[in-house]
Write a structure and sequence with these properties.
single chain; 15 strands; about 500 residues; alpha+beta; 6-stranded mixed β-sheet
């Protein structure tokens, strides 16, 4: 063994912890890289009970895998953060992390300092983010139809989803999509065995109480009680006394007054978060009021925004009738749908709201369609917020080409960290081409050469025929925000893993 080999073995041994972590991450990434691109395939996850999921959603695959390695768990947590914050781009982020770490390990084992690698990665990622920022196209009224292309890419070219989500986006409008408290993906509902539909309103998945209720109410006034509607309870000890009984009679009279106020307000539908007194329920039903109880808080909040009603506690019913009226909302129609086993509230007087119903013949397929639809909805909203850039890995590859100049002009060891970023930026297109059945090395080099020759930064591969094409002209578009967040997250995860130089067994705290 010569001196150089001996030194390399020392370096490899010194950074065995990094090598161990990188191998664990690579094993995880192998499960998701085959899903990216228009020709990406699905993954089946089966648990010990035989239950299974079929999906090509990166974060679902990662979250459902049986993983115990700490480095792999760090990557899964990063993917979850990306999904929670942006709603899409987890597969791209995962692929970027994997290549950053693999390239970094190669250079580290050749003797490059971890700190120089990290510094170079930071510089490269910073420039890559700036590249995306500089080239994003804002979504405005004149190019609003670009959103269809975003939905098509994120929605796996499902034509029905394109129409559903675009219609829903048009209904709620740009201003609503830009609101911080709105998650467009939360408007997706999956129900097996029904027709796909865009509902201009919300759905409460509860059956009205009583046997006699109206299945259709037009121009209905709505009250929402985020509380129970019961007579104030007294302890059994107190009820056994004369004072206690008198107190109960007083509470009952007060409660009956509340019920009469609801009737006098000409309420069409009363939605209650908790339980309702049976006697009061019958009174309201006899008065022709639709009563729905035990509703989840999340559904109450959505209903409140849709119809313009305020969530109230039962104490508000002690106010004068005229004062209570301002807490009520309105809707053009309230419909009980027996097939859906839920109540549709349509065209509320509050903020624009929509519910996108997606369905399929079986539960497994329906669940996957919901995941795809949620990703597409999140992408659409991200595009409205921060604009779009060319997709298909073209933006990343063009950026990698520009970073080559930065690396060549860097005299210190940080250039090896920049090289890691260059390798990572080439990886999304590499995997897209690989999944399409073409030679990824050859095609990526061909596109790189074409970019340098033509100066066109939107070139990529047509996955149907393997030809180089301008993907911007083909309307292959991704939200800029998704790419920016994926770059930031991949940098953070890669840096955190590269800083681990030793793995020790911790004590048990049981």
């Amino acid at each position: 063994m010569n001196y150089q080999q001996a030194e390399e073995e020392k370096v490899i041994g010194k950074y065995s912890a990094i090598a161990n972590n990188v191998q664990a991450v690579k094993a995880l990434i192998a499960a998701v890289e085959g899903t990216i691109g228009p020709k990406g395939m699905d993954c089946m996850l089966v648990n010990e009970e035989g239950n299974f999921i079929i999906t090509n959603d990166g974060v679902t695959i990662l979250m459902e895998m049986d993983v115990s390695h700490p480095a792999a768990i760090m990557l899964i947590n990063g993917a979850y953060a990306q999904q929670k914050e942006i709603g899409d781009g987890t597969t791209t982020m995962t692929i970027l992390v994997g290549q950053l770490l693999e390239s970094a390990l190669y250079h580290i084992q050749k003797g490059v300092s971890v700190h120089h690698i990290i510094q170079g990665i930071r510089l490269g990622i910073k420039d890559a983010i700036q590249y995306i920022e500089d080239r994003k196209i804002a979504i405005i009224e004149e190019n609003w139809d670009m959103l269809k292309s975003v939905i098509k890419i994120a929605g796996r070219e499902d034509e029905s989803l394109i129409e559903l989500l675009f219609k829903a986006a048009n209904y709620i409008g740009k201003e609503r999509l830009l609101e911080k408290d709105l998650r467009f993906s939360d408007m997706i509902e999956a129900v097996e065995g029904l027709e796909n539909e865009v509902l201009p309103g919300v759905i409460i998945y509860r059956k009205p109480t009583g046997d006699k209720f109206k299945s259709l109410i037009n121009e209905g006034r709505i009250m929402i009680l985020d509380d129970e509607l019961q007579v104030e309870a007294l302890s059994s000890e107190l009820m056994g006394t004369e004072n206690g009984f008198n107190q109960y009679i007083e509470n009952r009279e007060k409660f009956d007054g509340w019920i009469q106020k609801i009737i006098d307000l000409d309420i069409s539908a009363l939605f209650i978060g908790r339980t309702i007194d049976p006697h009061a329920e019958q009174q309201l039903l006899d008065a022709g009021i639709l009563v729905v109880s035990n509703i989840l808080s999340e559904q109450l909040n959505r209903l409140s925004q849709c119809v313009g009603a305020k969530l109230i506690k039962n104490s508000v019913l002690s106010k004068r009738t005229g004062e209570i009226e301002v807490y009520c909302g309105k809707a053009a129609q309230i419909i009980y749908d027996a097939k859906l086993d839920g109540i549709k509230i349509i065209d509320g007087a509050g903020s624009p709201a929509a519910t996108v119903l997606v369905s399929a013949a079986t539960g497994v397929v329906t669940k996957e369609r919901e995941r795809v639809a949620r990703d597409a909805a999140a992408s659409l909203q991200a595009a409205v917020k921060e604009g779009v850039v060319v997709g298909g890995g073209a933006s990343e590859l063009a950026c990698a080409t520009l970073l080559e100049k930065m690396k060549n002009n860097t005299d210190n060891m940080t250039k090896y960290g920049i090289a890691c970023v260059i390798d990572a930026l080439k990886k999304p297109m590499y995997n897209i081409i690989k999944n399409a059945g073409f030679n990824p090395l050859e095609k990526v080099e061909n596109v790189t050469s074409a970019i340098k020759t033509t100066g066109c930064h939107s070139l990529g591969i047509n996955c149907d025929n393997g030809e180089i094409e301008d993907l911007l002209k083909k309307a292959v578009l991704d939200p800029a925000l998704v790419k920016i967040y994926a770059l930031k997250t991949s940098c953070e995860i890669a840096e955190a893993i590269l800083k681990i130089h030793l793995i020790l067994k911790g004590r048990s705290y049981q």
